[in-house]
Amino acid sequence: MPPLPKEPQPGDLIEFTYNNSLHWALYEGNGYVVHLALKCDISWGEFFSNMVKWCNKGVVKRELLKDVVKKNPYRVNNFLDSQYPQWSLNKILSTAKRKVGEEMEYSDLRKISRCFVIYLRYGLICKEQFCELPKSGDLIEIFYKGHQHWAIFEGNDYVVHLAPPKPTGLLSMFWSQKSTAVVQRALLKDVVNNHSHRVNNHSDDTFPPLPVNKILSAMKKKIGQEMRIEFSAWKTKCEVFATYLRYGLITKEPFCDTPKSGDMIEFFRTGYQHWALYEEDGYVIHLAPPDDFLGKQHIISSVALGFAVVKRQPLKEVVQGCPYRVNNYLDGCHSPRLLKDILRDAKNSIGKKMDYSLLHWNCEHFATYLRYKIAYSVQADNFLRVLQNKKMIDISGIEGPVCEEVVKKSAKACRIQGVCAGCG
């Protein structure tokens, strides 16, 4: 007796044979698959014997597996798992769902059905029209033999990347020798060089990417920058470099820009972001929880006690091992105040005990008010929107975005706290 086929799991690739021709589908779950099917209403036998004559258009369909394979044998065949990491199941299924109903032309359905499911499971980009092309600021993961290379997409088919170092001199045959890697702008096709590649903005769920204009500006500034590095280290540095450009996360790498006086620093704590204002010489000023309740820098301390304290501390102490970045996110719509005014008010606030409110006066409100004289918090705004979506509050009477109402209440809180000289 032949072995029973492996029971497919959501995200699996299904391969089946009909009239000596292969066809592919992606298993969604509950007996359903997503696949690229014939648009015209003819039988499989008629199609494969008259491929060009009958039809050259396909449509992505969601159908029961049993209706697609009929009585033909099939198998689970995730044949590229050993070469490429697959997407998360959520991303695979959401992409497949988005593609249902999409129409496309083809010259060989057997080939394109395979390319289609490979794209759904692994995200690998090919020349077919169902592949979503990179957008400016996207991270590009390129599968070189033995390792992955990374670049960031600029637009118009160009990328910026940390090109591999090229050893020189008598020891050029030893890749352990340090040599110079250079940030280069090049055509994507030249960097890919016929290797598989995909868009992989892998940290978007954890760190919001910087605005595209800031990403592109940072990319332009880095072109031509050199770094002495070993080839083995370059394999990981190229990803760190591209990730830095998209998210702005600061590390000890030489390509990371250091904060300047008056910059706002965003720290990614577990479950929330903490904010501070960079003063100078490695110090920040921030609205922080008191030290004598639930441990240092714990947001629950301020929430529970209802107050926080303005502190001046070394940046390295505030980081606490968390990722962080410079994020002057309101610069595009509000001009920063004069640096002398920012630093004066920041220093005058040191040691002050202030009432604390997650919605109207938190560490982010404090930092934005110092830099712009506008107390605003993205986190507070987003929280209000969540409450509105859950019908827990009614903001229908507020004119304009929710943030405007938050700004008004936060500015009032700022005047009560007496943060800025002369504000009243």
Automatic annotation (TrEMBL):
Keywords: Hydrolase, Lipid metabolism, Transferase. Signal peptide: none annotated. One of its GO terms (molecular function) is N-acyltransferase activity. Residues 13-129, 139-254, 264-379 form the LRAT domain. One of its GO terms (cellular component) is cytoplasm. PANTHER family: HRAS-LIKE SUPPRESSOR - RELATED (PTHR13943), PHOSPHOLIPASE A AND ACYLTRANSFERASE 4 (PTHR13943:SF36). This is Uncharacterized protein LOC107522703. It comes from Erinaceus europaeus (Western European hedgehog). The gene is LOC107522703.
